[in-house]
Predict the structure.
Amino acid sequence: MLKALGKVPFWLKTVIAFAAGIAVALIWGEAALPVLDPIGNTFVKAIKMLVAPLVFFTIAASIARLGHSEDSGGGRAVRLGVYTIGWFMVTSAIAVSIGLAIGIYFQPGQGIAHLPFEAQPVKDIPTPVEVVTGIVPSNIFQSFAEGKVLSIVLFAILVGAALGALGQKTRELSTLVEQGSQVMFKLTRWIIQLTPIGVFGLIGSVVASHGLESLRPLIPYIGLVYLGCLTLIFIVYPTLLKLHGLRVTGFYKGIFTAQQTAFFTCSSIGTLPVSLQVAVDNLKLPSSYAGFALPLGANMKMDGCGAIYPAISSVFIANYFGIELTTSHYVIIALSSILGSLATAGVPGVATVMLTVTLSAAGLPLEGIALLAAIDRILDMMRTATNVTSQILVPTLVSRENGLIEAGSPLLTGSAKSLAG
């Protein structure tokens, strides 16, 4: 039986687990939570367990390799960084434009009144200065223990730069860091195999906790958020891939595992180990660049949480409270969505933070956040899958523009391979 199970495709195992989780939740309801919650939570913990060491080893090894390269690694790293940030901004602008277009056309929130909601504490939004100064750790071991990814990223960059500058003097340590990176990738591959089990617990927990009936008044709004995210994933991103001469099917087949993990864990940071693995192993992006760009994107590239969601939600909240939005409102919503994810990088609960930033900037009622609290997990699944897709897309585009994709990549057609050389 185990041999037969091993022949079942991984995606099919995940789909079966997804259906089984929903079935168990619908049959037993909240009584199933004591079983479902530990399964889902353990899987999420297993993924998050890898994040801090994986980020450190991959970034340190990547920067060290760039420093050892013969083609002016430092300048190359800066150039790739500029390309990456530039594409972050461009794709975020496209995403928020789509979110606003959907909100303006469909006008979610109209005709809805008296939704039951409880007051939610508004998150404290750090200033840009606080964000920047907070990146520098006073105790790096505490940053590792608390999972402060941006602090770990900074420390890893410094270590990698030092290893590259010292060259042969630290050859053994550079080798050790490189080996640490390989070990973390191997552990990631092992834990990915547990995805169907984790999916069973996570989706079952969502359905058992909220039920289906309680979501009825907000189903149109949920549908619009999903529509915006799916428009990005299946129209905008494929268009960008085609414009770069890359195979759309090769990209999506390669990253499907990461999308699944993101959808069910609702965590870009938690999905980072899987994102790195599929980018390097499946898409054949250079580990020296992917190991830098993907952790950066997991913190500050939020097309779902930081663009689509706050744009549509702002229109929903304005309509619910009977506020007429002006052109100025829309401009403020767009700018705060594009720039906000950079200013709130690494802040926990980034979707709520982004919505708080957007509502505050546009002068809309912060009480509206409470309207959406009950369905946040359902929204977060699609938001995070969109985030992770964009976080892998941008390094793919930048790698293509700089001729870094390996010849054996499924992204490349015959003609594209010749261009990549």
About this structure: Residues 23 and 204 are 8 Å apart (CA to CA).
